[in-house]
Design brief:
The complex is a heterotetramer of chains A (333), B (302), C (334) and D (319). Chain A has 333 residues and is of the alpha/beta class. Chain A is built from twelve helices and twelve strands. Helix content of chain A is 32%, strand content 22%. In chain A, a hairpin with a 2-residue loop joins strand 1 and strand 2. The longest helix of chain A is centred in the middle third of the chain and has 18 residues. Chain B has 302 residues and is mainly α. Chain B has twelve helices and no strands. The chains are: A alpha/beta (333), B mainly alpha (302), C alpha/beta (334), D mainly alpha (319).
Chain lengths: 333, 302, 334, 319
């Protein structure tokens, strides 16, 4: 199809988690690709499965989770069938991960530098302390930590939130991975700090050529940093588009409503386009389209309540999980 | 305007299970009933309490007086659990001793939990210097072994029942105080308490409707642990001779005689029953406490 | 326009004690002056630790002021206790950020909404119950939800319950502390719409605290930008956010993600981090991160002084030029 | 850090003086006259009065109370704890003789208990809610519910009486002072005490580990590509912070358990000395025992503070 092979290719990924009331399906046929060196945004509300998608790729799931996937293609391997032991050589080496809350994602009793050294030395068994530390300092400098050599000897509590998040990014980069999964990397940070951290991530992409999956609920962050967007709702992908396509010509009522519901998209004081109701519980998904109960599209009809739409291409080649993917275009036009 | 559009379209929370409509208190009780260990513990505990309260009415023997002729008899139809070294009926003594042991245990725990809850609540609620001092006292007292203190007091002043209860509660209250303090601290941090202030609620209302319902469950759990602790400590102290004094029986001092090798080897009916009685009481109390704690664990409430 | 609430040089200082027993004074709010006119919506924006929430909490008497004064309709409301405080809170209510922790999980929704009615003796059997239904209806919840518990609701519904409770006493003014930041994107809009329509229908005055510039711009008339315990800039919301005068406001606006991929913003990337509120820089508090700072900024505290047509004010020795091209359309700054 | 230590140390000293005053007052409140107790009962009644007065002067009981306390306290800090009523030996020496066996018994039990509790507690936390977890947790609850004297008796009954593999009591067989004999005598009392130690620490370690293993940083460690062992060790290092504090605070409580076990096994330790003194109303020994408990508690509290500061970098690096 395209010239470049995707670095990550999810095909029909399903996830079930064990709850006190039995297994609950959290991800439903999640399918998307990530090209080498691109920044892809994944948006959705809490509970839409965007974080679980990243954890499924890394297989960092709670005990007794069940994964069923046609394929989780990564850099020539299928992670869906990789053994746990082999997967450990992928985690941290070929795929780095950045988590949401930098205040809790570092071990509080170990020096920051040591924790990054550890990430390097796990995958380079013969390497000495000095060499690992040199690599650590190099990465800390790349993500913009001043006085990196000295600060590496401090403990996490001596670092601010923004600095800690840079440390986590440095840790994810230390083995020169092909892909970084960043799960709400700036949600816990202030606006001015968020900008600094996202810049650091973008610089890593520019200098190391690493692809980034940027999971966020903030469409502004997507607009600024991602070239393509995956929109998730109730455990499934509802739309895949380039960022410009999504903002200007969305093909799914949920993505369209999400973009319209932001205050920035309206004139001051004018009522916002609100999405009524709340996302469905995963234990209690409607039979048809999961978004149907909240959908305000003029095309909504009986089929939305009875049949669940698949993620398919529209006539003009856009990916949307809406029965009326070909009609929205006309509305906008 | 938009407010009205939404009013005409009320949102209903999807209630998948009926039990979500049940008040939290009743939910907790149901969870307790689903915990077999806790239920068995509760039943055993009730049986033990019933036995020592009404049991003596049905046993014809005086627990404190015996005939030497009857001494050292193994269990028989007449003396179900046999007789001790001076001919007292062992069953009568177990029941009477149980009254003493449980009275001390429950009374000391009740006193300790009351004092501890009040002190801990005040420390947590008001904070500041008073809290710092109280916390320090709690820290130190927590590591003071009650048994050793009783030995010192009994060694100097002579053993007595009121002293037992006072020293136990004096050394056990910090446990419940610490728990009450930490719960109050976390409840106080909860915004609904601050909200109540802005909403104009008076302190009395806040304490009655927000604070006490928040603290009570943890205090109940703390109380069960204290009962177990007090019963165990009383037994140890009486066993050492610093607690309940003969001829009055207690589960602890009934084992005192059994330190002798002859009793230990030849008369197991003298030491097995009181030992098992203590064990069963403590174990069932702990099981009930664990059950209550699991049942009120709010993390499972969501 | 007469001011409903006047805040003069408000200070809220806390004393913290470290593990070793050393005392530190945290100057969370350190000389804030504000005016809120009747029926106005004032936004207070700034990053975490700037003192915006503490200011809001001090207004409703949740934090004791350690300096300065506050007047409500001309009456001194700086330190209120007992019945005076209750009388004041009947007029000025507060909406909390976290709709989970601000609702007691052991109480039914009806009891939660009824709490202020009971506190003020306005709970009289049937009438009280009718009032609760009315309030739930007002915020868009069916009255039969009153018998349920908070954990059975979604975040947005819980925030509606919190708003219904705050409205129970028919207050004149609401202090809203990040009312939508704990909510999902799609639900935020519902609650913002509700807040805007309520304000119109009930003639309410709002003080809305938020870190989200888009939310503030949408809902409020005027804004105050706070940095490290002081107000650095005030003025009409649109003007301040489109043409900031204070370098910090400019940096904050430029750091806010755009609302579409086409929107280009000036890239001002602040260096360094927010200094600690217990160790505030001399002179201008922002100088440690400011690209325009020079010697005078380190020695002289810049006062909040009028800028432009007099609607606006900023506390800066080297304010940005109001005549410069609008920031939002994109200029290159270092 | 130094400042903190100095404040804590001085507050401990204050508490110690308060306890000493308390014990002093307690003895004055005690029934009976210590001077009277010193004079043999069979002395001539006429002479007896004079002898008692003489003893009173000798004991310093004729001086005002505060002065008496100062003198007594002065003696106490110089190591003069008085003489036992019963044996007329210096109390300090009696206590010193008994310290060794007590430390041997309690120290070994603490070490054995922890050596068992650490791996077991960590292992069941890693496999939480598995069969091994349920089994170990149940056993530890049961072990906590058995009074130590009862388990000691059961132990003697099973191993010494029925199986005859271990000695009944004492520290060694008369005439045999070989280490092997001492070891055999240690097995049962250490086993009983270690069981209690292990039972409660397994619960602490399991709880602490469960809390740590649920933390976000563990997920970060896993995301680096480390195996379960490395992640567990990260969690363990963090769970040590509350654990060392609890351990230090619990040492005095295990010494209380040691008193019971010493009594059952006739172990020549401080506990047995205290019980003898209790039965014979030997005040000087009882007071010395009380002071010993106080010192134990205060030292362990101080230890807990220091350990806490040492293990947690967040506390250590407070400027």
């Amino acid at each position: 199809m395209t010239v470049t092979e995707p670095v990550l290719s999810l095909q029909s990924v399903n996830l079930e988690l064990k709850t006190p009331d039995g297994y609950v399906r959290i991800l439903r046929d999640v399918t998307f690709d990530v090209a080498p060196g691109e920044i892809v945004g994944v948006v959705g509300e809490s509970g839409s499965g965007k974080s679980m998608t990243a954890l499924t790729v890394m297989r960092l799931l709670p005990p007794k989770a069940r994964v069923q996937a046609a394929r989780i293609g990564f850099d020539g391997d299928d992670l869906a069938t990789t053994s746990p032991r082999a997967l450990r050589r992928v985690r941290g080496k070929r795929i780095g991960m950045v988590f949401q809350d930098p205040m809790t994602s570092l071990d509080p009793v170990i020096q920051v530098g040591r924790q990054i050294d550890e990430a390097y030395r796990i995958h380079h068994p013969g390497v000495g302390r000095a060499e690992a530390r040199a690599q650590t300092v190099r990465m800390l400098e790349l993500v913009g930590v001043p006085d990196a050599a000295n600060r590496a000897r401090q403990y996490p509590h001596q670092w601010s939130g923004g600095m800690r998040q840079r440390a986590v990014i440095a840790m994810a980069l230390v083995n020169d991975p092909k892909l970084i999964l960043a799960d709400e990397p700036t949600t816990a940070l202030d606006a001015t700090i968020q900008a600094q951290v996202l810049d650091a991530l973008a610089r890593a992409r520019d200098e190391l050529g690493v692809a980034v999956v940027l999971i966020t609920h903030d469409l502004g962050v997507i607009a600024q940093f991602a070239s393509r967007v995956i929109v998730m709702y109730a455990g499934g992908v509802v739309e895949v588009a380039t960022t410009r396509e999504l903002f200007e010509d969305s093909r799914h009522p949920y993505s369209a409503a999400l973009i319209q519901s932001r205050p920035g998209a309206h004139r001051r004081g004018e009522p916002l386009v609100a999405i009524p109701g709340r996302p469905p519980l995963m234990t209690d998904l409607p039979e048809g389209c999961p978004f149907a109960p909240r959908c305000a599209s003029p095309y909504k009809s009986a089929v939305c309540v009875t049949d669940r739409p698949e993620l398919e291409r529209s006539v003009d080649g856009r990916l949307s999980a809406c029965h009326f993917r070909d009609h929205h275009q006309e509305v906008v036009a | 305007m938009t407010g009205t559009t939404e009013r005409t379209r009320p949102m209903r929370p999807s209630l998948t299970r009926r039990r979500e409509l049940v008040p939290p208190g009743r939910l907790a009780f149901r969870r307790f009933l689903r915990n077999p260990a806790a239920v068995v513990g509760a039943v055993v505990l009730i049986l033990i309490v019933l036995a020592v309260v009404v049991g003596p009415l049905f046993v014809p023997w005086d627990p404190d007086v015996g005939e030497l002729i009857d001494a050292r008899q193994p269990p028989s139809a007449e003396h179900w659990l046999g007789t001790d070294l001076i001919g007292r009926d062992e069953l009568a003594r177990i029941l009477a001793g149980g009254r003493v042991s449980l009275t001390i245990g429950f009374l000391a725990a009740l006193l300790a939990v009351t004092v501890g809850t009040v002190v801990g609540t005040l420390a947590g609620w008001f904070g500041g210097v008073a809290d710092a001092i109280i916390s320090r006292i709690i820290d130190i007292l927590l590591s003071v072994p009650a048994v050793l203190v009783i030995i010192v007091f009994a060694g100097i002043l002579g053993p007595s029942l009121p002293m037992l209860i006072i020293v136990f509660s004096a050394l056990l209250w910090p446990q419940s105080a610490r728990i009450a303090r930490s719960v109050v601290l976390s409840v106080r941090e909860q915004e609904f308490v601050q909200a109540a202030r802005v909403l104009g609620s008076r302190t009395r209302y806040i304490v009655l409707h927000h604070l006490i319902p928040g603290v009570l469950p943890s205090v109940i759990v703390a109380a069960t642990i204290l009962v177990a602790d007090a019963v165990l400590s009383e037994a140890a102290v009486s066993f050492l001779g610093a607690g309940v004094q003969p001829p009055q029986a207690s589960w602890g001092n009934m084992l005192n005689d059994s330190k002798s090798l002859t009793v230990l080897t030849l008369m197991p009916w003298l030491w097995l029953p009181p030992g098992l009685a203590i064990f069963a009481t403590v174990l069932s109390t702990m099981a009930v406490g664990d059950g209550v704690r699991d049942a009120i664990d709010t993390r499972r409430n969501a | 326009m007469s001011a409903l609430l006047t805040v003069d040089d408000l200070e809220v200082h806390f004393t913290a004690r470290s593990f070793t027993g050393r005392k530190r004074v945290i100057r969370a709010v350190d000389g804030v002056s504000l005016e809120v006119a009747e029926h106005e919506a004032l936004g207070i924006i700034g990053e975490s630790g700037c003192g915006k929430t503490t200011t809001g909490r001090a207004i409703v008497q949740l934090e004791p002021a350690t300096g300065g004064s506050m007047h409500y309709r001309g009456k001194d409301v700086t330190h209120l206790t007992g019945s005076a405080r209750r009388a004041f809170n009947a007029h000025v209510q507060f909406v909390f950020q976290d709709p989970m922790s601000s609702l007691n999980p052991r109480m039914t929704v009806a009891d939660i909404v009824a709490e202020p009615l009971r506190a003020y003796g306005r709970w009289n059997g049937r009438a009280g119950r009718d009032r609760v239904s009315e309030l739930l209806d007002l915020v868009g919840l069916p009255p039969e939800f009153g018998s349920r518990y908070p954990h059975q609701f979604s975040g947005g519904q819980r925030q509606r319950i919190g708003i219904a409770r705050a409205l129970a006493l028919e207050p004149e003014m609401l202090v809203l502390d990040e009312p939508v930041s704990a909510l999902d994107v799609s639900v935020q809009a519902q609650v913002l719409n509700l807040l805007m329509s309520l304000r119109e229908a009930q003639g309410l005055t709002y003080v809305m605290i938020s870190h989200d510039l888009d939310v503030i711009r949408h809902v409020t008339d005027r804004v105050a930008v706070m940095y490290l315990g002081v107000v650095v800039e005030t003025g009409p919301a649109d003007e301040v956010l489109d043409d900031p005068v204070h370098p910090y406001t400019a940096a904050l606006v430029s750091a806010t993600p755009p609302s579409s991929p086409d929107e280009k913003r000036a890239r001002i990337r602040l260096q360094g981090e927010l200094p600690s509120a217990s160790n505030i820089p001399s002179g201008c508090r922002f100088r440690t991160r400011c690209w325009r700072a020079d010697e005078i900024c380190a020695t002289v505290v810049p006062p909040l002084s009028p800028k432009g047509d007099g609607n606006r004010a900023a506390a800066c020795h080297h304010p940005l030029d109001l005549a410069a091209p609008r920031l939002r359309e994109g200029i290159a700054t270092p | 850090m130094l400042r903190f230590l100095v404040t804590r140390l001085s507050s401990s000293l204050v508490v110690f003086v308060v306890i000493a005053i308390g014990l002093f007052v307690l003895v004055r409140l005690a029934p009976g006259d210590p001077a009277d107790a010193l004079v043999p009962l069979d002395a001539n009644p006429g002479d007896r009065q004079a002898l008692v007065e003489q003893a009173r002067v000798q004991l310093g009981l004729d001086k005002p109370l505060p002065l008496q306390f100062v003198l007594w306290f002065g003696n106490l800090v110089t190591g003069n704890l008085g003489f036992s009523f019963q044996t007329n030996q210096p109390v300090a020496q009696m206590l010193g003789d008994r310290l060794g066996p007590t430390l041997l018994l309690s120290g070994t039990a603490l070490a054995v208990g922890l050596l068992v509790a650490l791996p077991v507690g960590i292992a069941i936390a890693v496999r939480r809610n598995g069969i091994s977890d349920t089994a170990v947790s149940s056993v530890s609850v049961i072990a906590l519910a058995i009074p130590s004297f009862f388990s000691a008796m059961l132990g003697i009954w099973i191993f010494a009486v029925q199986l005859r593999v271990l000695p009944f009591a004492g520290m060694n067989t008369p005439g045999d002072s070989s280490p092997g004999d001492l070891f055999l005598h240690l097995v049962l009392p250490v086993g009983i005490l270690a069981l209690a130690v292990a039972a409660s620490f397994i619960r602490y370690i399991r709880g602490g580990m469960l809390e740590q293993l649920g933390q976000d940083y563990i997920r970060t460690v896993m995301a680096k590509g480390s195996g379960p062992f490395r992640a567990t060790m990260h969690g363990f290092r963090n769970s040590l912070i509350p654990l060392v504090t609890v351990l230090a605070l619990y040492i005095p409580l295990y010494f209380a358990g040691a008193v019971v076990v010493e009594t059952v096994f006739s172990w020549p330790g401080i506990g047995q000395l205290a019980i003898n003194a209790l039965v014979n109303r030997d005040y000087p020994v009882i007071i010395a025992f009380g002071l010993y408990v106080a010192v134990l508690v205060l030292v362990c509290n101080l230890l807990a503070d220091v350990a806490y500061a040492l293990v947690d970098p967040r506390v250590r690096s407070v400027r």
